[in-house]
Amino acid sequence: MAKSKAKRKSKTARRGKSPQRPSATANSPDAVALLKADHREVEGWFEAFEGARTTRRKLDLAQKICTALAVHATIEEEIFYPAFLAATEDRAIHHEAAVEHDGAKKLIAQIESSGPQDDYYDAKVKVLSEMIKHHVKEEEQRGGMFAEARQSRMDLKALGEAMLARKQQLMGEAGGGRSRVRARLGDDRSAFLSA
């Protein structure tokens, strides 16, 4: 195995190229695939939350869910939704998605400002899960937003690259703690909710 790696390195060196990973654009998912991957990730965390028994585990999962959903909503609202509306002119689907985001962001703010000690904490996470399930179904169903986007002239690859870059930026900020994410998205709750 070491020999084959050495052979590949020497062949690459002879061609005058350095052994590098493929560029981000070569492996970047299209916009719809990126958003669907986000959906699956958050669905898994919601399932784990339902089975969680400790306060710490519930808090960790809820924070992951809220951060992921805030970032997801931001990349959809800043990049995907405007492109979708411009390409399809489907105001009904666009507006419904925007209203669903607004409701989810309000509940996210309530969850983030409380904790498992709140009698309604689990119920808030459960209701958020149900809201997100509905939203995902609306986006992913036959004839839904994603299907319409695929049938349009949207450049889903370029959008996916832009969305991935923005997501990485926002998640990098999220790595510094929730307060840093709120500062970037708007520390004031009303600014966060309208992001």
Describe the structure.
The chain has 195 residues and is mostly helical. The chain has one domain (28-193). 78% of the residues lie in helices and 0% in strands. α3 packs antiparallel against α4 and α3 (31-51) runs antiparallel to α6. The longest helix has 34 residues, at 55-88. It is globular, with a radius of gyration of 20 Å. The N and C termini lie far apart (51 Å).
Question: In brief, what are we looking at here?
Answer:
By secondary structure, this protein is mainly α.
Structural class: mainly alpha
- The coarse silhouette is globular
Number of domains: 1
Helix/strand order: HHHHHHHHHH
Return residue spans where pLDDT drops below 50 for at least 5 consecutive residues: 1-25, 177-195
Secondary-structure blueprint:
Layout lengths: L1 H13 L9 H4 L3 H21 L3 H34 L2 H22 L8 H20 L4 H7 L4 H19 L3 H8 L3 H5 L2
Helix pairs in contact: 3-4, 3-6, 3-8, 4-5, 4-8, 5-6, 8-9
